[in-house]
Amino acid sequence: MDYKTAVTRLRVFNYAFGVMETVRKDPYCMECRGLTKAYEAIAVSFKKFEEEVSALQGGLPAAFPGLQVEVCKRQAGLDIPVNTVSQKELGKCSLPDVCLPKAALAILAKITQ
Predict the structure, then answer these.
(1) Alpha carbon 77 to its chain's center
(2) Has this prediction a pTM greater than 0.85?
């Protein structure tokens, strides 16, 4: 991974965990399997990212190690439920053809391909 890719991914992880933080406070999303599954996938991807970044000679550019620390803090502060049910299947979620946590995961997937 080069520096540009590392910085881009870190910025998207910051966004993705920010979405998780926000939807964790939503009455429907907080109990939804979509949040749980998206979070798990993002967390696995972030762990792999951290391993790859540690192998970068010289690490991240000067402005970004602080952001990596903030992303780690953001992730650590998330309390994601494990026994969840799809809120769409229960008929509670009214978002048309979109799932906010899965949308964040989709953006991350585009960057990590």
Answers:
(1) 13
(2) yes
Decide if 38 contacts 32 (C-beta within 8 A).
no
What six digits make up the tokens of 86? 């799809």
For the chain, domain boundaries:
3-112
The mean pLDDT values, 10 residues at a time, for the chain of 113 residues are: 87 95 93 95 94 80 82 93 92 91 94 82
- Name every residue whose Cβ is closer than 8 Å to that of residue 93 and which is 6 or more positions away in sequence: 28, 29, 32, 86, 87, 99
Percent of residues in the chain assigned helix, strand, coil, to nearest 5 = 65, 0, 35
